[in-house]
Specification:
- By secondary structure, the chain is α+β, with helices and mostly antiparallel strands.
- Helix content is about 40%, strand content about 15%.
- The protein has an eight-stranded mixed β-sheet, sandwiched between helices.
- Helix 2 runs parallel beside helix 5.
């Protein structure tokens, strides 16, 4: 196995710090993973704060088996990170985050019926968000539910827990999280906001699909 370099760890740490600077999580509430090579991912360490992550808090895990490479213990959510990367080969980064307005919606008794297509960013970059019922963090039950839902969704709400998103790279996953939080904040301030017309949503989803397949 090609060893993970310090520069690669530095790139991962910098991306984690950016997530915190953008207000996508607080303290130790989030975690992130990065498919570095075909069968290797970097994951933030258990209990770590992404905004203050150090090189010594970067865990290395085999994606195919979950085997730990080295001594740094990954986040308890590494199971669903690994599963999403296995199911979505076109995606390379998974982010679990907790933004105030989106997490408030995740605390609903069931999947919100809100139409999130208020601006072009939702249909073009994110699509329809998914929903996972509550399960204890770090459990196989939660991991299984997240992996299954993220087969067909790039962003999901985890009931009473927060959110998860996947992206092609750090910027892709970060802007998905930020755009969704923006939409949830808009809904909170204006519950009667008018969604985009359905034909406009379909057009943007088609454009996004064609861009992905180019």
């Amino acid at each position: 196995m090609q060893p993970v370099t310090q520069d690669e760890k530095k790139e991962f740490v910098a991306a984690c710090h950016r997530v915190e600077r953008l207000g996508l999580l607080r303290c130790s509430s989030g975690n992130m993973s990065w498919r570095l090579r075909d069968d290797i991912m970097l994951v933030s360490a258990t209990g770590s704060w992404l905004g203050e992550l150090t090189l010594e808090q970067v865990a290395v895990v085999r994606i195919s088996t979950g085997e730990l490479v080295g001594e740094v213990k990954p986040s308890v959510e590494a199971g669903f990170h690994r599963g999403v990367l296995l199911q979505r080969p076109e995606m390379n980064v998974v982010l679990h985050f907790q933004t105030p307005y989106a997490t408030a919606l995740a605390c609903a008794p069931e999947k919100p019926e809100a139409n999130f297509n208020l601006t072009i960013e939702m249909p073009f970059y994110i699509g329809e968000p998914g929903w996972v019922p509550y399960a204890c963090p770090g459990t196989e039950k939660l991991a299984t539910s997240v992996i299954e839902e993220m087969k067909t969704h790039d962003l999901i709400l985890m009931q009473n827990h927060g959110l998860a998103a996947c992206g092609k790279n750090f910027l892709d996953v970060t802007q998905k999280a930020a755009f969704f939080e923006m939409t949830c904040e808009m809904l909170a301030h204006n519950p009667n906001a008018t969604p985009m017309p359905e034909d406009g949503v379909r057009e943007l989803r088609d454009l996004a699909t064609r861009k992905t397949n180019v």
